[in-house]
Design a protein that fits this description.
Elements: E1 9-14, E2 19-25, E3 28-33, E4 37-42, E5 48-53, E6 60-63, E7 69-74, E8 77-82, E9 88-91, E10 100-104, E11 107-112, E12 115-119, E13 125-128, E14 138-142, E15 147-152, E16 155-160, E17 168-171, E18 176-181, E19 187-192, E20 197-201, E21 207-210, E22 220-222, E23 228-231, E24 237-241, E25 253-255, E26 261-266, E27 273-278, E28 283-287, E29 296-297, E30 301-303, E31 310-315, E32 320-325, E33 329-334
Parallel strand pairs: 25-29
Antiparallel strand pairs: 1-33, 2-3, 3-4, 4-5, 6-7, 7-8, 8-9, 10-11, 11-12, 12-13, 14-15, 15-16, 16-17, 18-19, 19-20, 20-21, 22-23, 23-24, 24-25, 26-27, 27-28, 28-30, 31-32, 32-33
Length: 341
């Protein structure tokens, strides 16, 4: 059962731009707006630490693991910001840049048209992949940053460090919209335009397709254990069990709250807690791994919204949830301990 008891509101800010992406690392929260404004805020207080602009708008934002750098990507290129002195490097490449992923504090991968570029924190290019069949849609690091998975039409291709050509190719005909790699390294999953999730077992390329979603699957997220995968593509959030031999022949748990899911974020740790946001502005907190397969779960807590659609969610540690709505407002909520949620 959901409860009307609210998590305490820590702070609220107005970013004056419809937020499309959030990232949280260490003591910072970075929020990117659709028109290209990126603000970096203190996670505990909400005070502004820095800001920069990405010409042409923003699609994604990511803080480095040490919270020392921010990368933002958009329709015309990408930009990097350095915390120590506020230095901003903007690259207007004219290439669609939909995603970015940090390997560690020294390397970040950005999608740039039909390639992935691997950069140092100040924007210097370290290496690049060969051209893919279409625009790169998502990226993920594997093997503690030693391998980069790149999603584009028709396949997910994996590159070792400094290798232009892929060392492994996982093929599936269709448009891959989202990419999730299990932290264990066992599974590679793509959310697809054809309303499916396609799954590869990394060690041998074994394949499985979860089809039958009513809409395209554009959001996928593994929890920290790598045993649970959350996905959109339906009014319910679906949560698949990847423990043991994986999800083949099983049914997911269904989380019923939103009519359209617009954001997903697992709480750090292994408690199985998930936050989700919807087009109606609702934010729900879940014991997402409770019950049995085919169980339809209700949220354990719902947070007050602003009336606008949720643009993005991010956890700033296990006890602070940042929520950005598309009317330009961002709030953080204190969330109880794992056992008290």
């Amino acid at each position: 059962m959901s409860t009307a008891v609210q998590s305490p509101l820590a702070w609220e800010a107005d970013v004056d731009d419809a937020p499309v992406a959030l990232s949280a690392r260490g003591d910072l929260v970075a929020v990117a707006g659709a028109e290209g404004t990126v603000k970096v805020l203190d996670a505990a207080m909400g005070t502004e630490i820095g800001a920069f602009a990405l010409p042409g708008g923003a699609l994604a934002v990511a803080l480095s693991p040490d919270a020392g750098h921010v990368v933002a990507t958009g329709p015309l290129g990408y930009a990097l910001w350095r915390r120590s002195d506020g230095r901003t490097t903007v690259r207007e490449s004219g290439a669609w840049s939909a995603a970015a992923a940090w390997a560690d504090g020294t390397r970040v991968a950005v999608a740039s048209g039909r390639r992935a570029l691997v950069l140092d924190p100040d924007g210097g290019e370290l290496w690049r992949t060969e051209l893919a069949a279409s625009t790169v849609t998502d990226l993920a690091w594997m093997r503690q940053g030693r391998r980069l998975a790149v999603a584009a039409y028709g396949a997910v291709r994996c590159h070792e460090r400094h290798t232009e050509k892929p060392v492994a190719t996982y093929s599936y005909v269709g448009s891959h919209l989202a990419l999730a790699v299990a932290p264990t390294g066992r599974w590679i999953c793509s959310g697809n335009q054809d309303a499916s999730i396609h799954i590869w077992r990394a060690r041998d390329g074994g394949e499985l397709t979860m089809s039958g979603y009513p809409e395209k699957v554009s959001r996928l997220a593994f929890d920290d254990t790598g045993f649970w995968l959350a996905a959109d593509g339906a009014p319910d959030v679906t949560v698949w069990d990847f423990s043991g031999k994986g999800p083949e022949g099983t049914a997911p748990r269904s989380l019923r709250c939103h009519e359209t899911v617009t954001a997903l974020a697992w709480r750090p740790g292994a408690a199985g807690h998930l936050a989700s946001g919807g087009a109606d502005g609702t934010v729900a907190l879940w014991h997402a791994t409770a019950g049995r397969p085919q169980a339809r779960l209700r949220p354990v807590r719902e947070l007050d919204g602003t009336g606008a659609a949720v643009g993005a969610l991010a956890w700033a540690g296990p006890h602070l949830l940042a929520v950005a709505w598309r009317d330009g407002r961002i709030r953080t909520y204190g969330v109880p301990s794992r056992n008290a949620l």
